């Protein structure tokens, strides 16, 4: 891609596509899937996330087309319920990553981000002065109520969140549905995070995992999106449950305009210092062939940077 401005905005894209047991190659400026049923071309410029399940092979040219169009590629387990690896995001700017890291590394500002994440989940304004522990307690009550309400509405028996990573079939249907729906949600949130140049691993509430920030942001939507969806699907689709959940997620994400909400929500929760994320790429990032800037604390610029790709060997030290 010669000009990043040619790309579709993330919030204008479709959410995700899961593929298994197929061969994927380049088709013109897009890609195509080949399986026992034939060939299906896919316009990747309008796709946010491609999830590759078992039995898929993909060509170098197809990966190049996906990268050029800022479509995140994730290698996942059967049914998209396990995550193995992912490609890189499309932005070439580290501005948002630096801002995220600055807030994460400052204990006082990190607590403020955590509080804003919790406050984002409640319709009614929260009382000022609530401690972090009190906010966690309120969120726990909210999640339990969401499970109970979904169970009462659908008639699906709920005995708690129970599943074993090593034994997928041991979980009851509603727990499998929840895991499948949450995996789809994580994938779309992950695509949004890397598309804007944030780090998926620098979480504020969750910590210690490569997807900690993904879990932070995905939790903003579970009570309203994936929990009721999982119970609804379980009540009517006990056969092909996981596939039914994936299809329902795709429809629900589109209906709730999820991809339009994620990046503004991230910006809101990180706006504890009054600083907004800047859109677009810096002059150093607009040209893929150009090097980045160099850090220079004496430069006097806002970002303390000076131009890279210049030989300073003959300059006075």
Task: Give a concise summary.
With 317 residues, the protein is an alpha/beta fold.
Q: In whole angstroms, how far apart are the ends?
A: 39 Å
Mean of residue pLDDT values: 82
**What is the correct CATH architecture of the largest domain?**
Up-down Bundle
CATH class of the largest domain: Mainly Alpha
What proportion of the residues form beta strands (DSSP E)? 5-15%
Find the CATH topology of the largest domain.
Four Helix Bundle (Hemerythrin (Met), subunit A)
**Count of helical regions:** 10
Taking pLDDT < 50 over at least 5 consecutive residues as the criterion, the unreliable ranges are 1-7, 279-286
**SS-based structural class?**
alpha/beta
Q: What is the oligomeric state here?
A: single chain
Helix content: 40-55%
Counted beta strands? 10
Shape: flat
> How many individual domains?
3
* Radius of gyration from CA coordinates: 22 Å
Helix/strand order: EEEEEEHEEHHHHHHHHHEE
Strand order of the largest sheet: 1-5-7-8
CATH superfamily of the largest domain: CRISPR-associated endonuclease Cas1, C-terminal domain
Q: State the major sheet.
A: 4 strands, mixed
């Amino acid at each position: 891609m010669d000009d990043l401005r040619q790309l579709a905005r993330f919030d204008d894209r479709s959410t995700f596509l899961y593929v298994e047991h197929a061969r994927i190659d380049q088709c013109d400026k897009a890609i195509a899937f080949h399986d026992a049923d034939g060939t299906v071309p896919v316009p990747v410029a309008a796709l946010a996330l491609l999830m590759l399940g078992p039995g898929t092979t993909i060509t170098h040219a197809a990966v190049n087309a996906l990268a050029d169009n800022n479509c995140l590629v994730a290698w996942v387990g059967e049914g998209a319920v396990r995550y193995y690896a992912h490609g890189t995001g499309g932005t070439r700017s580290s501005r948002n990553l630096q801002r995220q890291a600055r807030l994460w590394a400052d204990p006082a500002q990190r607590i403020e981000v955590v509080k804003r994440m919790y406050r984002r989940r409640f319709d009614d304004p929260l009382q000022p002065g609530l401690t972090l522990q009190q906010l966690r307690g309120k969120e726990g009550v909210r999640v339990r109520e969401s499970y109970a309400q979904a169970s009462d509405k659908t008639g699906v028996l709920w005995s708690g969140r129970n599943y074993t990573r090593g034994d997928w079939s041991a979980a009851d249907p509603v727990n499998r549905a929840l895991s499948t729906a949450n995996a789809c949600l994580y994938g779309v949130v992950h695509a949004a995070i890397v598309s804007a140049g944030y780090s998926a691993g620098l979480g504020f509430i969750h910590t210690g995992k490569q997807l900690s920030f993904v879990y932070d942001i995905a939790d903003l939507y579970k009570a309203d999106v994936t929990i009721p969806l999982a119970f609804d699907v379980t009540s009517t689709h006990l056969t092909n449950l996981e596939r039914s959940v994936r299809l329902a997620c795709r429809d629900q994400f589109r209906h709730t305009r999820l991809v339009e909400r994620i990046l503004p929500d991230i910006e809101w929760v990180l706006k504890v210092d009054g600083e907004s994320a800047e859109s677009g790429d810096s002059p150093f990032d607009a040209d893929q062939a150009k090097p980045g800037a160099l850090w220079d604390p004496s430069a006097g610029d806002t970002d303390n940077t000076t131009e890279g790709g210049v030989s300073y060997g003959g300059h006075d030290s």
